[in-house]
Structures are given as C-alpha cells and as structure tokens.
TrEMBL record:
<keyword id="KW-0813">Transport</keyword>
<dbReference type="InterPro" id="IPR000515">
    <property type="entry name" value="MetI-like"/>
</dbReference>
<dbReference type="InterPro" id="IPR035906">
    <property type="entry name" value="MetI-like_sf"/>
</dbReference>
<dbReference type="Pfam" id="PF12911">
    <property type="entry name" value="OppC_N"/>
</dbReference>
<dbReference type="Pfam" id="PF00528">
    <property type="entry name" value="BPD_transp_1"/>
</dbReference>
<feature type="transmembrane region" description="Helical">
    <location>
        <begin position="188"/>
        <end position="213"/>
    </location>
</feature>
<feature type="transmembrane region" description="Helical">
    <location>
        <begin position="253"/>
        <end position="274"/>
    </location>
</feature>
<keyword id="KW-0812">Transmembrane</keyword>
<comment type="similarity">
    <text>Belongs to the binding-protein-dependent transport system permease family.</text>
</comment>
<feature type="transmembrane region" description="Helical">
    <location>
        <begin position="305"/>
        <end position="325"/>
    </location>
</feature>
<keyword id="KW-0472">Membrane</keyword>
<dbReference type="InterPro" id="IPR025966">
    <property type="entry name" value="OppC_N"/>
</dbReference>
<keyword id="KW-1133">Transmembrane helix</keyword>
<feature type="transmembrane region" description="Helical">
    <location>
        <begin position="360"/>
        <end position="381"/>
    </location>
</feature>
<feature type="domain" description="ABC transmembrane type-1">
    <location>
        <begin position="186"/>
        <end position="382"/>
    </location>
</feature>
<protein>
    <submittedName>
        <fullName>ABC transporter permease</fullName>
    </submittedName>
</protein>
<feature type="transmembrane region" description="Helical">
    <location>
        <begin position="56"/>
        <end position="78"/>
    </location>
</feature>
C-alpha cells in the first residue's frame, strides 16, 4: 500500500503550513525542571553556580571580602591607636586569651603582667600574674583616633580592661601594639594592589589591544619597548625607581609613587597576552561584521574582543595583585618604599631585620602571616574565577 502523499503537479504552488501558536521551549524539547533552569539561566547566574562549586575559591573570596571590609573600619577594629606607646611593656610577647579562671567561667580575659629584666642578657621577661584577671571589653571607649583622618572617634571593637593591657600579637621596641599596627597596615598593603592593578590593566589592555588589532609599525615599537623592559631585572629596577623619589615628598606622594612604579613594571606581560589574543580574534567573522556596520576600533576591542578572553584577564588580575603587594612589602622592608608615618606590612617587617631581634622577639614576624594568607587567597580565588568565567566548558 502506498502511503506517500501525491506530488504536486508541475508548476503548482507549494503548500506551506505555519503555526501561529506562541513559541514554547518545552514543546520543542521535553526538559526536566533542572534542565530548564540551567537552559534559561543568565550568564552571570551560570558563572555564580560554577564558582560556588569551587569551595576553596569561595572561602578565599569571603576571606578577602572580610579583609577589604575591615580596612574601611580599621580604626574601630584596632584595640589601640596606631601611635599609642606603652613604655612599660616594650617587647612584650603576645598574651593568651582565657575563658576560665580556677574552673569558673569568666569570659574572655587576659592575665596582667609583670616585667623582670634579665641582667645577663638585658632581655625583658614578662610573667603572667595569675591573680590579676583583666576582662576584655567590647564596643567600648578607648584611644581616640580620627576616622579616615576626618572624624574624631574613640569607639573600639575590643579594648583592654580599665588600666589593663591587651597585646594579642605582642609589642615592638617602642611598646606599640603589633596587632593594631597590622590592622592599620592592611589599609595600605591591600589598597596598593588594587590601585596598582588598575593602572597596569589600563596600560596593558590599551597598548596591547591597539598593537594586536592594528599591528604594523605601532606593534613593532611596542614589542621592542616590552622586550627592553622585560630584559631588566625587576628588583634592581624597583630599587632604582624607588631611590629617585625625593625624600622631601609627603607620605601620600610616596604612596602614589610606589603604586605607579609597580603599575609601570607589571603592564608588559598583560600587554603581550592581550596582543596575542587579539591577533587571533581579529580574524573572526563577527569582527568583520562589526567593521562593516561602522564600529570603530575602540568599540570592537572593548565590546567584542576583550570579553572573548575575560577568563584570562581575571586570572592575570588575581595573580598581579599579590605580586604588587609583595613588591611593596619588599621595597618597604629594604627601606626604599613607603616611610613612616605611613604603616604597611612591609614597614612592620623592618622591625625584624636583625637576627638577634628575631631570636629574642619572634612575634615581630607576625606581619608576614597576613601577607602569606592574602597571596594564597588571591591565587585560589583566581582559579575559581578563571573557571567560572567560561561556564559552558
């Protein structure tokens, strides 16, 4: 039996059938609710779903978010003012926080201390007085400060007991609380990476993008400049550029000077990466279509080419920020970076230059701990963001 439809006569018009019903994705292909949720999700939502699967990156992101929020209120978080000196407690070791005294719950407290001088080594030894219980105070009045140098205040998150002491990270040679100075130093050390990477990305994307998109003599000149800069050892170049800054500059000018130096030295690698990507992407059909529609070079680079390798840019940024933090720390540690009264983690580490100081007062190396944690957190965060930037893989 022939079930085929008869063919239309030669020259007869073909019959077309068009459905006027609204288009329904579910009618085209049967999908489960989970599949439909993924299929209809936006790009940002897909990125977030993939990022939160990377647990280490998620924890690192939360850790960095807390740190960057903390630098906004570091005056409130620090137990002491940045410049407060406790001359009776020079080189005091870290105090331990206790909850129970003689089996009775007291709450967070520390024991008072008594200093004894070792006449053989002239070392200050501190002994906890077990009968002197000093309860910690929270959301309390303490040392006065200027919030961001503008508003007078004296409220702190935690304070020592009345006429007591609280040195959770010990004190330095002037009796200043190391923990408070670490909290204040985070504002400089963490922001210098963000400001520096902004300057570096601006140079790298603009110069590398123009060199890769247009090529020609401009590309040739840019490549020779990059080769010259990359052939110079970074540390001697840092030292040379930092040494030419006038000693009469204010701390703010020195801060921006160090930021510019770090940005000038970091843009070359990004520029080459952007150039190589654009050399490949500029031959794509969608670039030709944008050109035929009259789009300018800047719009094509900004709207069509750079989003194509955003995952690489994110990974580069998260690796460059800790590099700049390390650069500032190294310059300040060598005495060629930031100078007092500005406080950063690198400046705090200058207290531990001497081997004898490290042997007798090892807690002065504690500012090295946040540097290590921040660098590891940025690396883990970069891994998660790089994977999440392309959620379709």
């Amino acid at each position: 039996m022939n079930t085929q439809s008869p063919l239309p006569a030669p020259g007869a018009p073909l019959q077309h059938y068009i459905s006027i019903e609204p288009f329904d994705l579910q009618s085209v292909e049967a999908m489960t609710p989970e599949q439909s949720k993924v299929f209809q999700a936006s790009q940002l939502r897909l990125m977030w779903w993939k990022f939160r699967k990377h647990r280490l990156a998620l924890v690192s992101g939360i850790f960095l978010a807390v740190l960057y929020f903390g630098i906004l209120i570091c005056e409130f978080l620090a137990p002491y003012n940045l410049h407060t000196r406790n001359m009776d407690y020079i080189y005091s070791p870290p105090q331990q926080v206790h909850l129970f005294h003689n089996g009775e719950f007291i709450g967070p407290f520390v024991y008072g201390r008594q200093m004894m001088l070792d006449m053989d080594t002239l070392k200050r030894n501190y002994i906890d007085k077990q009968d002197d219980v000093q309860r910690l105070r929270f959301f309390c009045k303490g040392d006065s400060y200027q919030f961001w140098g503008l508003i007078e205040g004296d409220r702190h998150f935690v304070c020592p007991a009345e006429n007591g002491q609280l040195f959770l990270a010990g004190t330095d040679r002037l009796g200043r609380d190391v923990l408070s100075r670490m909290i204040y130093g985070a504002r400089i050390s963490l922001t210098i990476g963000l400001v520096g990477i902004s300057f570096s990305f601006l140079l790298g994307i603009v110069i590398g993008g123009l060199a890769g998109y247009h090529g020609g003599i401009f590309d040739l000149i840019v490549q020779r400049i990059i080769e010259v800069l990359q052939s110079i050892p970074s540390i001697p170049l840092w030292l040379a550029l930092a040494a030419i800054m006038p000693i009469t500059w204010s701390p703010i000018l020195i801060y921006f000077g160090i930021t510019v130096i770090l940005g000038l030295l970091d843009w070359t690698g990004l520029a080459r990466a952007v150039r190589s990507k654009l050399l490949a992407l500029r031959e794509e059909d969608y670039v030709l279509a944008a050109q035929l529609m009259g789009a300018g070079s800047s719009r094509i680079i900004r709207r069509h080419l750079i989003p194509g390798f955003m995952s690489h840019l994110i990974a580069t940024a998260t690796l460059s920020i800790p590099g700049m933090i390390l650069g500032e720390t190294a310059l300040s540690f060598l005495g060629l970076g930031l100078r007092a009264p500005i406080t950063s983690w690198g400046i705090l580490l200058t207290e531990a230059r001497s081997v004898s100081v490290i042997a007798f007062y090892p807690w002065l190396l504690l500012p090295m701990l946040p540097v290590i944690l921040v660098i590891m957190a940025f690396n883990f965060l970069g891994d998660g963001l790089r994977d999440a930037a392309d959620p379709y893989k």
